[in-house]
Write a structure and sequence with these properties.
Elements: H1 18-32, H2 44-51, H3 55-68, E1 71-74, E2 78-81, E3 108-109, H4 122-134, H5 136-140, H6 151-165, E4 174-177, H7 179-191, E5 197-202, H8 206-214, E6 218-225, E7 228-229, H9 231-240, E8 244-249, H10 263-276, E9 279-283, E10 309-314, E11 326-330, H11 334-346, H12 351-363, H13 365-392, E12 406-410, H14 416-425, E13 428-429, E14 431-432, E15 445-449, H15 455-467
Parallel strand pairs: 3-13, 5-6, 5-8, 8-9, 9-10
Antiparallel strand pairs: 1-2, 4-11, 6-7, 10-11, 12-15, 14-15
The structure holds pyridoxal-5'-phosphate (PLP).
Length: 471
């Protein structure tokens, strides 16, 4: 009888050669007792196929272990775990399990809007990071610096924001953070006193709610319609809840519904915020991704200079969520409050990473990358829209988003939760609207973040979606 697949856990980026990582994984399983003395291992061809590696690599691993005495090759019969294991066998507890199981195929997923990691301009970033580390400026400035972030990046970002989106930000009013998540936490710390509340879009972005709560604020959901946050509902919420001291919005592409707030509503919102003297927190997390039509400038580009405003941006959609870089622009005294809160928890950011990003902005690499990513994601969006129409037709409803990395899919008669559960069992992860609500009834809808999937994967994912549509 053929042995079962081994299902080895192999370090994702092994430090040494791959065959040694495979050999280590096998020894670990012998020590753990998963592979018993005398048990037969799969043939090299079968294991190579299972692991997605070349057969010679598995052959080298088996040979290494045979030489060390862990395995025994029996001509014409196969390879077996040795009956007498090597003397230097260490107890299992001292063998650390690999942190990252690697050769595990991730399930297909419509994310909440993650970018494609394969597009990261890694070489340009690596070169810029190396330059930053080796620069004399870094060597003389390795001491603690400004809690607001490296001056070169604040200057570069100031020009970028002005030319890219009409946001005029003095570098002194910019704060670099480790991702916009930190900026949202600091925004709440600076804008809201304990016991006060922040009005948030519902459905909305749960991680922002977590950041606000962690900063001591409570959150109050305000409904969203086809034009984004309902300003009329916000007015009512403020009238009935005097604790509301700030409002958090995602006007470029409302999270999760993707709708863009129109010009008239933007003016209403700015007027309301000014009239009530509350702070406006604008999360412009995916500004780079507008595929057609005229660019839509942030509220921060239109707001009166003295409006209490915190504008938050992120590099997560443009570079990668794993590269922790975000920023905030704020009026005083909000900016100072945020910088002081940042210094208390993190002192300052990552100087070489910040200098590297400044380099990418100044050299134009970031702008070129944005243009390339925009082209690719636009095609993917169109492939998704076409596949949905073809496979699901009238049973769904959606507006093709003018930008952003996700599509909001109305589920028609179907329950979004049931659909997500059925698709999950068929190998496709989905995010139903219930994941984005605070308490009010969620619409029957799914957020389909498509950008990390290539065109073939999108078509395949839509196939699964169609097959798992609840009857
Ligand atoms: C609404 C919203 N804001 C901000 C972010 C970015 O977060 P960060 O910069 O912390 O990675 C995301 C990422 O998913 C988001 O969806």
């Amino acid at each position: 009888m053929a042995p079962d697949p081994l299902a080895l856990e192999i370090a994702k980026n092994p430090h040494g050669p791959l065959f040694l990582a495979i050999a280590e994984a096998i020894t670990r399983d012998i020590l753990r007792g998963r592979l018993k003395p005398g048990s037969r291992l799969p043939g090299t061809r079968a294991l190579a196929r299972e692991l997605g590696v070349h057969r010679n690599t598995v052959d080298a691993a088996y040979q290494e272990l045979t030489t060390q005495g862990w395995l025994k090759a029996e001509p014409a019969r196969g390879t077996f775990v040795a009956q007498d294991l090597p003397d230097e066998m260490t107890p299992p507890v001292t063998i650390p399990a690999p942190v990252e199981p690697a050769i595990v195929r991730p399930p297909l997923a419509f994310t909440d809007g993650a970018p494609d990691p394969k597009l990261l301009p890694d070489k340009a970033l690596a070169r810029a990071f190396r330059r930053a580390l080796l620069s004399p400026a870094f060597r003389t400035g390795v001491d603690y610096g400004d809690a607001r972030g490296t001056p070169v990046l604040r200057h570069a970002l100031s020009s970028y924001l002005a030319s890219d989106r009409g946001v005029v930000a003095d570098p002194a009013r910019l704060l670099i953070t480790r991702g916009s998540q930190m900026a949202l936490f600091l925004a709440a710390k600076a804008a809201v006193k304990p016991g006060q509340a922040i009005a948030v879009e519902e459905p909305g972005y749960p991680l922002a709610w977590e950041a606000f709560r962690a900063a001591g604020a409570s959150v109050q959901g305000v409904s969203v319609d086809a034009g984004g946050l309902s300003v009329a509902a916000l007015e009512e919420a403020i009238a009935s809840d005097p604790r509301i001291a700030a409002v958090y919005v995602t006007p470029h592409h409302q999270y999760p519904t993707t709708v863009t707030m129109g010009a008239a509503r933007r003016l209403q919102l700015l007027e309301l915020v000014e009239r009530h003297g509350i702070t406006l927190i604008e999360d412009d997390y995916d500004h780079e991704y507008r595929f057609e039509g005229r660019p839509v400038l942030p509220l921060a580009a239109r707001a009166p200079a003295d409006l209490p405003l915190i504008y938050v941006g992120s590099l997560s959609k443009l570079l990668s969520p794993g590269i922790r870089l975000g920023y905030a622009m704020a009026t005083e005294p909000l900016l100072s409050g945020m910088a002081a809160a940042r210094a208390a928890i993190d002192r300052q950011g990552d100087a070489p990473l910040e200098a590297a990003l400044a380099d990418l902005i100044r050299d134009g690499d970031l702008g070129r990358h944005a243009r390339k990513a925009r082209r690719i994601y636009r095609v993917r969006r169109d492939v998704l829209a076409a596949a949905l129409t073809e496979r699901l037709g009238k049973r769904i409803a959606f507006d093709t988003p003018a930008g952003g990395l996700a599509l909001w899919l109305g589920c028609g008669e179907a329950s979004a939760d049931v659909w997500a559960e059925r698709a999950g069992k068929a190998g496709l992860a989905l995010l139903p609207a219930t994941r984005f609500t605070l308490g009010r009834a969620a619409p029957q809808a799914l957020r389909l973040g498509y950008a990390a999937l290539d065109e073939a994967q999108i078509v395949h994912a839509v196939e699964i979606l169609a097959r798992s549509l609840p009857r």
